[in-house]
Specification:
The protein has about 200 residues and is α/β, with parallel strands linked by helices. It has a single domain, classed as Rossmann fold. It is built from six helices and nine strands. The strands form two sheets. Strands 4-2-1-5-8-9 form a six-stranded parallel beta sheet. Strands 3-7-6 form a three-stranded antiparallel beta sheet. It is globular. The model has no long low-confidence stretch (mean pLDDT about 95).
Length: about 200
Amino acid sequence: MAAAAREAVADRGTFTFAVSGGRTPWAMFEALAREDVPWDHVGIWQVDERVAPYGDSDRNLTSLEPLAPPGVTLYPMPVEGPDLDAAAERYAASLPLAFDLVHLGLGDDGHTASLIPDDAVLDVADRDVALTAEYRGRRRMTLTYPVLARARRVLWLVTGADKAPMLPRLLRADPSIPAGRVRAPEQLVVADAAAATETGP
């Protein structure tokens, strides 16, 4: 990731990075802090966010803000206003044409970002940012499949035994789970031993 950032900044003057929620970014940013990254040329967007007040423990931003390195430009998803559809349009207008790197996780039900099973958001093809129905107690704002497909690279970080049944389906791009429908040209899956128990060594 550090090498990709340096390469993008050298080629295009900026590195555009979309980050998912959960705990995996904590270790990722801790590792990146030890690397040579030109953070003052890096923009970080959110892949998805729960609709909740600022500072709420459910918000991905609540964990992401303290992790953001000095100099980086952070683009939080605007999920606090009354008109969420308009907010999604505004956020879409802030996106780069193609992200240099998108970090994705894998849910125990096969979701990624907030592209969740059986939700209408899975079929959104005409917008880059959309809203879900309530899922596990919250509505969510999320990047859609067209954005993910345009990304130069996707990095999957998959941890925990609860992801083990879904990891083989992700690896074979199984379209019956939301994660299996991501079609970025270059994708790298990094999984811990617990998640990889059903895939073999």
